[in-house]
């Protein structure tokens, strides 16, 4: 089968490998579309999260069941997406049922074969049945949308509040879209220095978009760091309104140095947000496949897996020309 595999930093290869054989307790899924995630780029640029190479990458997908264990509730032809997380079930967070905070959290595509392949095997408990989606491509966005749904739930956002999202990549813009379309905030601004990303933010229906976060930060009740830059984070804290809440929904490739004294004197709240719960995935699936939330603006290219190296290079470059790249299998 066709697969996209990680061989190390900046070394992603298209390969023909042996078709995956599901274990008796697993379902086999034919992958239709799979998306490159920001975390795949951390793997690509810095080698984060992965130990054993080569590995089939990818954790965002939509596909159709080929086979499923008897009694699993799934049958051949069902449209599905999956929960790609691998939680340890043993740490303190897992014992408390707080799986997004698992101390040993891993994903398919990192710790076991992922979905950048024609077929992926997954336990039925991890699958989410989809009403046959009108647009299969958008259904491949359920996992990143769940990240945004989860982050927004942690914000206790009120309609009278203003939000600023710093970083107009896929997660930043999905958070902005959820705050705008689901929570109906008074205003949702997006700051990103990249002009291409500003254009996508406007295409997403956001009115306040610009390069300079300091233009919006003094007004914002909620600031979201979806950029992962220490310099930007420091500016957010320096220019934030007193009593504002800062949500971190980014991974820093270089650990940030920031003036936390400013956060103390303003009595800011700093809150982290990481991945999602099963309910967040189900809610994201509903938003896309049933409520008609339109996220077509985020998909910038659909490539064949043979073009994997090109796709990763396009996303990893300093000049942005792409938002979300999907592979069509
Ligand atoms: Zn993802
Ligand atoms: Zn755990």
Instruction: State the CATH superfamily name of the largest domain.
Output: Medium-chain alcohol dehydrogenases, catalytic domain
Rg, Å, rounded: 19 Å
Question: How many runs of DSSP E, i.e. beta strands?
Answer: 18
Helix content: 25-40%
Tell me the β content: 25-35%
Q: Count of helical segments?
A: 10
The string of secondary-structure elements, in order, is: EEEHEEEEHEEEHHEHEHEEHEHEHEHE
Q: Which small-molecule ligands are present, each listed once?
A: zinc ion
Identify the CATH architecture of the largest domain. Alpha-Beta Complex
Mind explaining what this structure looks like?
With 329 residues, the chain is α/β, with parallel strands linked by helices. The protein folds into 2 domains: 2-145 and 275-328, Medium-chain alcohol dehydrogenases, catalytic domain (Quinone Oxidoreductase, Chain A, domain 1, Alpha-Beta Complex), CATH 3.90.180.10; 155-272, NAD(P)-binding Rossmann-like Domain (Rossmann fold), CATH 3.40.50.720. It contains 10 helices and 18 strands. Helix 4 (142-153) packs across helix 5 and helix 4 crosses helix 9. The radius of gyration is 19 Å and the shape is globular. Residues 37, 39, 59-60, 143-144 line the site of one zinc ion (ZN). One zinc ion (ZN) binds next to helix 2.
């Amino acid at each position: 089968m066709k697969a996209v595999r990680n061989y190390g930093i900046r070394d992603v290869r298209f390969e023909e490998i042996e078709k995956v054989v599901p274990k008796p307790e697993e379902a086999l899924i034919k992958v239709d579309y799979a998306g490159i995630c920001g975390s795949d780029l951390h793997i690509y640029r810095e080698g984060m999260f992965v130990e054993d190479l080569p590995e089939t990458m990818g954790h965002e997908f939509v596909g159709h069941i080929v086979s499923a264990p008897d009694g699993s509730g799934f049958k051949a032809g069902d449209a599905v997406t999956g929960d790609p997380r691998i939680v340890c079930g043993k740490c303190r967070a897992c014992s408390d049922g707080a799986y997004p905070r698992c101390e040993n959290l891993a994903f398919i595509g990192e710790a076991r074969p992922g979905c950048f392949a024609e077929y992926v095997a997954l336990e039925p408990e991890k699958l989410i049945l989809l009403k046959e989606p009108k647009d299969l491509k958008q259904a491949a966005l359920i996992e990143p949308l769940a990240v945004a749904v989860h982050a927004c739930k942690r914000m206790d956002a009120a309609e009278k509040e203003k939000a600023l999202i710093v970083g107009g990549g896929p997660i930043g813009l999905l958070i902005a879209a959820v705050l705008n379309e689901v929570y109906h905030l008074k205003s949702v601004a997006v700051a990103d220095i990249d002009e291409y990303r500003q254009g996508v933010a406007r295409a997403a229906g956001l009115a306040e978009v610009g390069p300079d976060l300091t233009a919006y930060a003094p007004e914002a009740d909620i600031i979201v760091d979806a950029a992962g830059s220490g310099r930007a984070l420091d500016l957010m804290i320096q220019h934030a309104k007193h009593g504002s809440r800062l949500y971190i929904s980014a991974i820093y490739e270089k650990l940030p140095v920031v003036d936390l004294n400013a956060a103390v004197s303003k009595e800011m709240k700093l809150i982290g947000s990481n991945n999602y719960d099963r309910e967040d995935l189900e809610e994201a699936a509903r938003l896309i496949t049933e409520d008609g939330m339109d996220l077509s603006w985020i998909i910038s290219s659909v490539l064949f897996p043979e073009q994997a190296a090109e796709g990763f290079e396009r996303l990893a470059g300093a000049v942005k020309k792409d938002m979300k790249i999907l592979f069509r299998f």
